[in-house]
Model the fold of this input.
Amino acid sequence: MTAESVEHRGQWPVPPVDGYTVDDLFTLPDLPPHTELIDGSLVFVSPQRRFHYLVINLLFSGLSDSVAPAFSVEREMTILLDRRNGPEPDVSVVRAEAVTGINQTSFRAEDVLLAVEVVSPESESRDRTTKPQKYAAAGIPNYWRVEQGGTDGRPVVHVYELDPVTKTYVHVGMHRDRIKVDAPHPIDIDLTGVGHP
Done:
């Protein structure tokens, strides 16, 4: 197949010389849902697998049931890390005072206490290296990476806490059937509802 034989249904956005900014992320027309900005480049996500959807629902519900009124659990909202980075964690816990209304499209990094990424085949590298490095550098105190584990397909949650001196995450635990932690607040979520017994 040659380049001439490929039929384009729309026009691809041409990036500016220095890359896109978070302002572009919110103003470019016709971007696909859940487009992220990483290092000035637009990242389009692939269709969601059922595991991804179920884990997001499970964690969103579990976190919502456990957070104090001072916090709000958010799903797939852009986090403004800096001018050239606007990733969209699958789930995040933010300060309730940072919620401004139903038309809000993003949160600032300093308002985020926990960012959660559910790993998909196409996002594996970003969720294991790129995003946690950027979340840590922005000062987000807690990061969870969720992977599909073993033959049973159940979620495995890797829990990280920020080392304030090095501005990097330290792996503090791996949870298979239940996640029970004290940070960013006391959380206890049964993980066995996803996957096969």
